[in-house]
# Entry
Amino acid sequence: MIDRHYFGTDGIRDIAGQGVMSAQFAFKVGMAAAETLKRHAATPVDGLRLRPEGVKPEGAGPTVVVGTDTRQSGSMLAHAVSAGLTARGADVIWLGVMTTPGVSYLTRQTGADAGVVISASHNPFEDNGIKLFNQGGEKLSEELERQIEQLLGEELADLPPVTGRAIGRSSRYRHDNDDYAKFLLANAPYLDGLRVGLDCANGASFEIAPRVFQQLGARLDVINAKPDGSNINVACGSTYPQAITKRVLELGLEVGITFDGDADRAILVDKKGRLVTGDQMLAICAVVRHEKQVVSTVMANLGLEHYLAKRGIALLRTAVGDRYVFTALREHGLLLGGEQSGHLLFLDKAPTGDGILTALQTLAAVRKSGKPLDAWLDEMPMYPQTIHNVRVAPEQKARIAELQAVQEAVQRAEAKLAGQGRINLRPSGTEPLIRVMVEGPDQAVIEAIAKDVAAVVEQVR
# Structure
């Protein structure tokens, strides 16, 4: 079995226009994806037949929905992938600009065999990515990703031609029924005049998020909802919560919500301007839903673990990446999990992270509890935590942590923490970075430790 060389924890990513994010390579990804889908005929997911009878003629090729965020390079890559798909006999349903969870939902709702999202999520505008969903709207399995890579590397040039009626077709999805918005509204509380600030990161949520919150009765203040193709995630969104925090404090809003570029994650801000991270949203929802166990990652704050334990809720940790959280939830028969970044999974609602859904479910839990959001934060202390990112060559990421000098630096850090904190050193799954995370009771101490370890990584990279 070959390892994955192009796929990371969240699809394929690179600087748009070069390498694996060139139009030429995106075309090949579309071809390889179509061939992989044809070799694995669509089967029911969890016993459910997703495609209504009669939608496609017997023997026809797979159907794939394709959506993109607001990056300038999105159209280039989406059309290249679509051309590759149709060249190998797949039919494409073009969604246009759509959030990643929206593509996941519409993959299920239309009965398609797969979904493709062109997005680099929270990454800078210059980057882009290709993410694939199976017919259940779940991220493609690592095994299918390996099979796509094998086609890219060995077999693509030897495929027989697809001609005549076997060539796929492309059509536009009709948004008249507003199916995804209806799904969100069906899983939301009435907001009854709540003063809400939204930061749409100039990304894929720029139209649907304000519309949904307005229909729920919120009094809205919306920022960063004018995408121009290059301003996605620029000094805005969940990676720059200062923008919505400032707005909340200036206007006296009751809550702020900030999404990333493809809206699969959300971070909240309470009326005092304090961040409500994925850890804290996970805790609120877990307590109100009476969960017995939830899933997060090795990055989850120790404060979360202690808070949940005092309330009889166990925390299961996984590697970083929502696919690992999803896998653990499925394996243990659990429903709620997530990441500190605001990427939460409610498997009784959807199979993938959804920033708008996460915000709505958190607000619903707060309302059901009868306790305001700021009161939740008052009783939920979190340990100071710092992350230092060190840029490395992509081929170096996997081996850095194995180097003796780095291992010795980590051992020195653990000795300084003396059991009162922890250190985690890991390669990013989406960027050429090594992330050095240190957590402990003293901010100055953990900053110094993280800086020392990051310096060693920089020396040996």
Summary: The longest helix spans residues 443-460. Residues 179-378 form a domain with the Alpha-D-Glucose-1,6-Bisphosphate; Chain A, domain 3 fold (CATH 3.40.120.10). The radius of gyration is 22 Å. The chain is about 35% helix and 20% strand.
